[in-house]
# Entry
Amino acid sequence: MKKTVPIVLLILVAVGAMSVGSSQIDGFWSVLINPGSNEIVWQIRFPRVMAALIVGAALGIAGLMAQGACNNAVAEPAILGTAAGASFGAVIGIATGLVQVGSLGALACGTAGALLATSITFRLAAFRGALSSFTLIIVGIAVSAIFTSLVGITSAVLNRADARSILFWSLGSLALVTNENLIGIIITTLVGGIVAWSIAPKLDRLSLGDQSAFHLGVNVSRVRFFALISLSLLAGGAVSTVGVIAFIGLAAPHIARFIYGPSHRALTIQSAFVGALIVLVADTLSRTIAQPNELPIGLATALIGAPILIALVTVKNNVWRTQ
Amino acid sequence: MITIDEITIVIDGREIIYDYSEQIPAGSITVIVGPNGCGKSTLLAAIAGDIAPDKGTITIDDLHPILTSPLELSRIRAMAVQNQSFTLGFTVRQIIEMAGDADLVIEQLALGEIVDRLVTTLSGGEAQRVAIAQAIAQNTSVLLLDEPFAAQDIYSRGRIIQLLKELAEEGKTIVVVAHSSESELSWADKVIKQFH
# Structure
């Protein structure tokens, strides 16, 4: 019963999200049970709702991988350079004319960029020996800043049409997602999610510190490597499809942890659920509350996620202890 | 049996351990004792496979810790580190079960009252007992404990020592690092004070 509540809630919110928008849909329920019967519902709202669910889930698990692998409460794709690296990869692909925004090629470039940037962060942070959480965050912020600058410079030398398209995408938006775009991100999210699920018990042990995890039989560097692959696939796929959506990677795992406890295997599912729910609600609000205008989704995700996170941290603060 | 053969360990240009050899027999309790910074925790970490000696070799039952996979190594030696930190809010039982069966060691170390508490809420002494319990639950032939009595009261200290004696009688090889203030060492089969 307890396990089915989140699924039912997600389905109800998804159906609600498909029913609202700037156009009134007559006979919504009959349209809903006849896939393809209405262009607005099935060609515009459906891919958008699905993208919100998948991107939210991907970012939720990506945040969990970042926090688990670094054993750090503030680690997330945006802080480790993963998101900026994904943007850079996708923009380079688009700038060189090899790929188009939202295509499978852009997704591959984004994932490669995410992997590159995150690898640089981890490698530099461990340059002087053991991986220090503090160094990791500082280096991650610096690497992120470098890749963000490179994205800006690359965008500046592009022709106007490509630059506008990149600007719109880089602010984070699900408005341009089509059914065809979903295939790539479903693949990256599934593969990234499976990798995350498989290393989850080892991340539980890694929370005791590298030395104690090693004593319990964990190959620490190998687990971090797979967490890095998972993180890059998940965040790279999400960012290259819909742009950078801040805050989900940080908030979703924490909210899930406060509700369900710290076990990483359960959290792989629960972070995905929380992330999907926040992004879906945020996207639905961002396209409906200021019609006909559309708000950047990042504003809504922060407005929804931040108060929940603050409330949980201030009320129940034994879930993550920082030293 | 743990065999330490002419090891030298240099950290940050300083020779912590120099040309040191020792044999630690199976089914015994060995205590490494000495003041802060003398290298006793370094020696324990080398036995555990955490650090590689710059010269010489260490073997546990013919296995070289630094050449053995972490998983295989975790089946022959367990270690409780000093000042174990717990960042995530697992329960005491969950932490012990990461290593193996929890029920027996919970009873042996009288952890029943705190078994459902989150480890993030434990005192230093309680956290240390949980770390020791986890290492014992790993059920390995070699058990390494780094300053297990540092934050324990006399009652808890006695209980831990009694359990270590029972485990040694069962054939386990136990190596304990203790501070030089640890004066009463009659429970140890062997005391190591110098490793130069």
